[in-house]
Amino acid sequence: MARRTSGRAGGRSGSPLTPYLFLAPYLVLFVTFVAIPAVLGLWISLHNWDYMLDNRPFVGLQNYAALFDETSVYYPDFWNGMKNTLIFTVASVPFLVVLPLLLALLLNQKFPGRTFFRAMFFAPYVLGVAVIGLMWRYLLDSNFGMVNDILGTNIAWTTSQPWAWVSLVFVTVWWTLGFNAIIYLAGLGDIPVEQYEAASLDGAGWWGKFVNVTIPGLRPVLVFIMVTTVLASANMFGQSYLITQGGPTNSTETAIMEILDLGLSRYQMGAAAAESYLLALFLGLVSIVNFWLMRDKDAAAQNKLLKQQRKGTGTRQPDDAPATPASLEVSR
């Protein structure tokens, strides 16, 4: 006797609302703390939202236009913050991408105490930015800081340029190096050992294995680290606020610091909201460029070829089906 299967096709049973019940807690938090504030912030940016005013008149895109008007009071401070944010991002991201990769390759080797060193390099990341900022502010102090004593120098690390930028980049790299290294280590663990063995049989050396096996195997991890590192660097606030306090002469005052000062100190919430959305737009464009540059060009070409062959032969496959040699052969 044939066994009767209950539920919908494919042997599935249960209410179609079950997945949404599991998602509900996250959706509630997302809507409450992300979606609603985002919409409210956009609404605020369209008004002259000054806490000192009795009413908050609608001004449309005037707050955004003021950011591109050289005669506006908001123009110099905002673009100075954007310039400083760009300097810090360009200076720190290469170190935060390359150095953790080299560290991960080293810690991926088998040697005594490997677990201990992994934990030691990751340890600074568990500390909050307030702890890191205050600690390095005193260590880098030009009068009684230990850094000058150890190096035998007399450098004003936090009150002169370019040493203020050197200090901020160094502290940030020291603080977050271990996190990116752990992500790289997880990616290295997912690369099959057989690929390295096959590369050895083909006569590849360590550089050949690194270029043809390690880097392609780490592509998804590289995309993740590039995007998250750029976003984190562009949103840098705590290090500059605590270590250099935006100085000297506002040369390390980032865009986030300017937005905070404009909105909470000068009560210009409408203009501050407009600045934050303009910054978010720039970061979104940078993220899209990163994804485009780090995309798998071979897979994209195969998918394009597969779609062309489907149109020519009438073969229908799921749109998200990956292009593989086997699928290409079938479509022929």
CATH topology name of the largest domain, in short, is MetI-like fold
**Alpha-carbon distance between the two ends:** 42 Å
Tell me the structural class.
mainly alpha
Major sheet size, sense and barrel closure:
none
What can you see in these coordinates?
It is found in: Cell membrane. It comes from Ornithinimicrobium cerasi. The chain crosses the membrane at residues 20-44, 86-107, 119-139, 163-186, 221-243, 276-294. This protein is an all-alpha fold. The chain has two domains: 66-295, MetI-like fold; 300-331, no CATH class. It contains 15 helices and no strands. The protein starts with 17 loop residues before the first helix and ends with a helix. Mean pLDDT is 86; it is low at 1-9 and 322-332.
In brief, what are we looking at here?
Residues 82-290 form the ABC transmembrane type-1 domain. With 332 residues, the protein is an all-alpha fold.
Topology readout:
Elements: H1 18-45, H2 62-66, H3 75-107, H4 114-122, H5 129-139, H6 146-151, H7 163-189, H8 193-201, H9 206-217, H10 219-234, H11 238-244, H12 255-265, H13 269-293, H14 297-313, H15 325-331
Helix pairs in contact: 1-13, 3-7, 3-10, 3-12, 4-7, 5-11, 7-10, 7-11, 8-9, 10-13, 12-13
